[in-house]
Amino acid sequence: METIYIVIVAFLLILAVFDLFVGVSNDAVNFLQSAIGAKAARFRTVLIVASVGVAVGAMMSAGMMDVARHGIMHPVNYSFHEVMVVFLAVMVTDVIILDVFNTLGLPTSTTVSLVFDLLGGTFILALVKMAGDPTLALSDLLNSDKALSVIVAIFVSVAIAFVCGVLVQWLSRIIFTFRTKNHKVAESVFGGISFAILAYFVFIKGLSKSPVFATEAKVWIDANTTMLLGAVFAAATLLSYLLLLMRVSVFRLVVLMGTFALAMAFAGNDLVNFIGVPLAGLSSYQDWVSHGAGNVDTFMMGSLMESAKSPFLYLMIAGGVMIFAMATSKKAQNVVKTSVDLSRQDESDEMFGTSRAARSIVRVTQECGQFLVRYLPKGMMQRIDSRFNKEEVVLKDGAAFDMVRAAVNLVLASVLIVIGTNFKLPLSTTYVTFMVAMGTSLADRAWSRESAVFRVTGVLSVIGGWFVTAGVAFATCALVCLTIYFGGFIAMFAFMALAVFLLIRSNIQYARKAKKASPEDASFKLMMRSRDPEIVWDVLCKHVSRTQSGTCEFALDQYNDIVESFSDQNLRGLRRVHRALNDKLDELTKIRRREFLALRRSPSQISLERNTWFHLGFNSNQQYIYCLKRMLDPAKEHVDNNFTPLPQSYRDEFEPMRQRINDLMKTTAQMLDTRRFDRYRETMLEADSCKNTLSVYRKRHIDRMQRSTNSAEYKVSLIYLNILQESQELLSIMRHQLRAGKKLLKPDEEEVLVDF
Length: 756
Known about the structure:
The protein is mainly alpha-helical. The protein has helices at 2-37, 43-60, 66-71, 80-104, 110-132, 138-141, 144-176, 184-204, 215-223, 225-245, 250-269, 271-290, 312-328, 330-342, 356-375, 378-387, 403-422, 429-443, 452-515, 519-529, 533-567, 571-600, 604-609, 611-640, 648-674, 680-707, 714-745.
């Protein structure tokens, strides 16, 4: 019996390491987003600053595990076996849920995940115990008041952080505009306030709570907090002014110090989210063994009612794992990218589509703005607008926003977390930092009319993901806990194996997905970062040719698959084509948005001259998909209903024509890819010849259908006729694409054929 629980405790500790990796991948966005988004320093420097903050926070942490030990449950009424069931269910559920969100690139909250995992597992086990012992009440088993305060504080912080972000950034931009060089006094005062807040955050609410500090020092700091803050403000203001005279950016220093402060707070306070449950399980096991390792069902866990401090060695190991995960995790960079892109100052590729809710919010907001413009004095509005002149913004190469917004993000997030700590409110650092960033980007007018609906959809998706996290964590952990409780050790080991399998599979799939990253991503980044319109146009031409060539090859592959799968009655193959066409259409929509943004950054004369051919070529890409869908749908329905298969005579008749279409489209794809149109004339002529031949095939087949008396073959004859018609349309689309590609890329060459 004791050996089994040793294995369970060991597995909890192993999952703690996985949880550290997964949790850091998620929460890295909290303290990296602002510094990376503003390019405050090189990525390596930002990581070093954050790593030092994580190390200091982990080693100086008090390591209190109260939430895991008795924040949700009343352990005095639970046996050793029952708490181990809850802890195992929580860890299995927590790791899997966080990994799924990170794989999708969506910021979620480790605090919410942990709290609702514990709440779900404890709640379902409490119901089971109450059913077996009517004398027990829910309040005897579940700390419902504490759980409710945690839940309310977490979700209220979303609205508070967003509103504060909007107001503070609006005031900051009114003061500094997008030019900060002529505001030395204001910038010095801002630096003094920021450093005072961050110093209070780091030293008074961070290091002073550590057991490393002597009790006398803590008492003196608490008694002289106001004096210390005043001294820091005065010294920091003077130092900021001197640095500005030496042309050193105060905002850059504030951003780096804010990154350090939030990283330290994350490691010092949120460490419980990752290792709290495993260490509570270890403490439970040690208490059970020290009292004789008796009956696991009768040994009650009153010892968990006491607050326990984690050993310093465990905190050091946890800090080291967090630093390693932060520096190496690709998923962490993916989550940071989501947050940065949603708050980007300029236009970029939008990760999210649109939604009805987002469109409604944007429409109402615009109407409110028009109402204010109508009734506020015009002079005031013009004065305010002049402070938000985005033409004056100068972003560092590759930066998503400027240093002012990055500094406000970090300082305001620190202030809100300090306030929450003072009022003993368990705020979610993810919620606070993300919503502050969204609020500041809105106030900075980063969400233009062209991008607002996409950004709002993204924010709603992320917030919705948080709520989904809560519901899924509660329900999943309750189900897992119930299964383990009644399934015994077999269910325990089964879920252990399942957790390992899912984690391994998830990482393998994520690695495969990362390898499939197309060169279009690098090309688009280059087009967005370049300030030379000629370079943008050159890269755009290569991007367009690669897109058109790839789409032509894709269309040919799917065309062949449709014909072959229909001939062979292969329903699985037709379904595979259906999925591929839908995915390609979504991909083309994203590519079109990217290329149109790049076209707007190209030389204006060129973009106006070749605009028609740009859109004609891209419409041809989409028309390929629509044509293939028209060919696929009746064929798939026919095969799915097990109707009469295509006669061999029809297959033999069409095969030579299919080979001619293959040769034509391969030649077209090659010319578009290489941008050498030496075979343009003969390709267009051959395409016309093929279309004429298909017309002959169609007329002959229609005559054949009219003469036929076999009603069983009538339906399949209609499908074959549709294939002939759509094959003609496919060739027309190919000609449009080839001509548009030639005119876009080489407009000065003589046009050979004008007849379509």
